[in-house]
Structure formats: C-alpha cells, structure tokens
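Action item from last meeting closed. Structure (194 res):
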C-alpha cells in the first residue's frame, strides 16, 4: 500500500484522519516524520506511544513522500500539500469522510489538491471520483476500520449483547452545516440535544 520507498511524512490534525493514519502506520511500520496538531497528537500517542513531532517544513524537505489527513477545521494539511509541491514530493490525502470534500481542500478560496486521494470504501470512492475527475482516487485498506472490527469481535465474546442494543456515533454535523450553509440546522437536525 505504500506509495513509494523512502521516508514518509504523515501530516494530520482532525481526529478522523488521525485514527486512520495512525492505524495505517501501526500496520505498515516505517521510518516517518510526524507533523501533528490538534486532536491528532493524542490519538497518535494513544496508539503509538510517545511521538516525536517534526516541523512541517523540515518533514516535507527531508521526506520521500507525504500522506495527509484532511480537515475543515485546520489548514495544516493544505499547507502540507503546497509545501510538498514546492519540494516536488508526491502527496496523498486519505479522505475519512463522505462529506465536505471540496471544503477540505479549499484555502482562501483556492482549491489545493494532492497528487492522489485514498479512500477506504466504495461509496467514498464514487464521491471523490465525481468531485475530482482528474485526480487519481484509490480504494485502499482502512486499517482503522479493521482494528474496530477486531475490537468488536473481542467485546462480543465477552459481553452478551441483546438485540435491542444501539450504538449511536455522531459527527459534529452542526459545525459543518454552519460553515457550509450558515445554519447549524440546515439539514433539519444537529448533533446537539435541544
């Protein structure tokens, strides 16, 4: 699954991307530079132990290729794409979502696209191919999802789950709706009990 040989730079801010990229690294151990901010720091440290962080400029200059998450809360990954282009390094973004793809690549109104996009499921691949027809979009293993499936198998063996059990996982959808449409309840609901 690795894009090319050499030292990898992993760049991540948001939790979703950090979960996927840290699991990728767990299953594909290799020498890499970690450029982490925000929630990504604690997620990588939870999975990998103490992490040595590298400044973006140094990581991009010294690496062979770049693997980023994506963010609508931070510009870190967009700056990584720009910097990778300056140093002629291949840059791939793993999209961990089904929504707001365009917004994840916009910086000051300009679209900042990587060389390639990785997705972890067929639905995401269709969306990415429709939105970015000139970009290479690869369906790759989502090791984070594999790890969750394994954890659930262990839990299922230990705990009797009755058929009326429910797991509700919520994305901070109101923030997305507000940023994109100026209305937290644009879709008619939010992730906050009102």
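Sequence:
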């Amino acid at each position: 699954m690795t894009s090319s040989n050499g030292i990898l730079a992993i760049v991540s801010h948001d939790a979703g991307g950090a979960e996927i990229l840290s699991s990728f690294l767990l299953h594909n151990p290799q020498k890499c530079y970690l450029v982490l901010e925000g929630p990504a720091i604690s997620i990588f440290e939870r999975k990998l132990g103490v992490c040595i962080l590298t400044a973006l400029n140094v990581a991009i200059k010294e690496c062979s290729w770049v693997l980023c998450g994506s963010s609508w809360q931070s510009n870190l990954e967009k700056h990584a794409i720009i910097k990778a282009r300056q140093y002629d390094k291949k840059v791939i973004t793993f999209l961990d979502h089904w929504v707001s793809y365009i917004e994840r690549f916009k910086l000051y109104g300009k679209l900042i696209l990587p060389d390639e996009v990785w997705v972890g499921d067929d639905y995401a691949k269709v969306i990415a191919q429709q939105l970015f027809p000139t970009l290479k979009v690869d369906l790759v293993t989502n090791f984070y999802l594999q790890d969750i499936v394994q954890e659930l198998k262990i839990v299922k063996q230990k705990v009797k789950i009755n058929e009326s059990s429910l797991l509700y996982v919520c994305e901070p959808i109101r923030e997305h709706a507000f940023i994109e449409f100026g209305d937290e309840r644009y879709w008619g609901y939010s992730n906050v009990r009102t």
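Note appended to the action item: The chain has one domain: 8-144.
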